[in-house]
C-alpha cells in the first residue's frame, strides 16, 4: 500500500469552489474523463447534500503491456460519494475505482473547506491510498506508477477547478450585462432594476 497526499489553497470562496466541483467535467485539462452520472442525491435532516456519482474515464495509468495481459479495454469507472455541508462550509468527496479494483484499488478523499483566515479562499486537502494486488507480481512497482500519476492528475484537477471558476464568473458577468441591456431596452433604469 502507498499513500499520497497534497494540500492546496484556491483563491476562490468555498461557495464558488463547491459550485465548480459539479461542473468540473468536461474540461480541457482532463480530457480522459468522458462522463459523470448522478446515481442518487438527497438532503439529510441537517441540510447536508449527499450525492453518489459514477465517473467514466478513458484511461488508466497502467502500461499497455499490463492492459493487454489482463484484458483491459481502457474504459474505467469510479464511484464517488460526496457530502456538502453548508453549515460548516465543507465539501467531502470520497472516490474509489470500480474497474480493476481486484488488481489495483485507489481510494481518494478530497476535502474542500473555507479558509479559516480568509472567506475568499478555500483549502483543499487531498489524500489517496493505493493498494496493489500481489497477483501483479510486484505490487509496489505498480502502486508507484499510480502515485506518480496522482501528482500529475492532482495538478490538472486544480487547474480545471480554476478554469471552471473563471468560466462561471464570466457567465455571471455575461448574464448581468444581458439583464442590464434587456432592462435598458424595456425602459428600466439601473436604479429600478436593482430594486426589483
Q: State the fourth-level CATH superfamily.
A: START domain
How many separate helices? Answer: 4
Beta-strand fraction estimate: 35-45%
Q: What's the story with the biggest beta sheet?
A: 7 strands, antiparallel
State the distance separating the first and last CA atoms: 58 Å
Structural class: alpha+beta
**Widest sheet: strand order?**
1-7-6-5-4-3-2
Helix content: 25-40%
Please tell me the overall pLDDT.
Answer: 87
Rounded Rg: 21 Å
What's the order of the H and E elements? EHEEHEEEEHH
Number of domains: 1
Report the count of strand segments.
7
Segments where pLDDT lies below 50 for 5+ residues?
Answer: none
CATH topology: Alpha-D-Glucose-1,6-Bisphosphate, Chain A, domain 4
CATH class: Alpha Beta
Shape: elongated
Question: Can you offer a commentary on this structure?
Answer:
With 196 residues, the chain is an alpha+beta fold. It has one domain (2-183): START domain (Alpha-D-Glucose-1,6-Bisphosphate, Chain A, domain 4). The chain is built from four helices and seven strands, in the order βαββαββββαα. The protein has helices spanning 14-22, 64-70, 139-185, 190-195; strands spanning 2-10, 33-43, 49-57, 76-85, 90-97, 104-114, 122-132. The chain has a seven-stranded antiparallel beta sheet. The chain is elongated and about 75 Å long. The model has no long low-confidence stretch (mean pLDDT 87).
Amino acid at each position: 500500500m502507498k499513500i499520497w497526499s497534497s494540500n492546496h489553497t484556491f483563491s476562490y470562496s468555498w461557495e464558488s469552489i463547491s459550485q465548480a466541483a459539479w461542473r468540473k467535467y468536461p474540461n480541457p485539462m482532463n480530457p480522459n474523463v468522458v462522463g459523470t452520472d448522478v446515481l442518487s442525491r438527497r438532503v439529510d435532516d441537517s441540510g447536508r447534500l449527499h450525492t453518489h456519482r459514477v465517473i467514466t474515464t478513458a484511461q488508466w495509468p497502467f502500461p499497455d503491456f499490463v492492459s493487454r495481459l489482463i484484458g483491459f479495454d481502457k474504459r474505467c469507472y469510479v464511484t464517488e460519494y460526496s457530502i456538502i455541508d453548508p453549515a460548516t462550509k465543507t465539501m467531502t468527496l470520497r472516490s474509489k475505482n470500480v474497474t480493476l479494483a481486484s488488481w489495483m484499488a485507489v481510494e481518494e478523499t478530497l476535502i474542500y473547506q473555507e479558509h479559516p483566515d480568509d472567506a475568499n479562499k478555500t483549502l483543499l486537502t487531498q489524500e489517496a491510498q493505493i493498494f496493489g494486488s500481489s497477483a501483479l507480481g510486484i505490487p509496489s512497482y505498480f502502486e508507484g506508477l499510480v502515485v506518480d500519476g496522482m501528482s500529475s492528475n492532482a495538478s490538472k484537477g486544480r487547474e480545471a477547478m480554476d478554469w471552471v471558476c473563471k468560466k462561471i464568473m464570466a457567465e455571471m458577468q455575461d448574464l448581468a450585462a444581458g439583464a442590464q441591456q434587456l432592462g435598458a431596452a424595456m425602459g428600466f433604469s439601473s436604479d429600478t432594476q436593482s430594486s426589483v
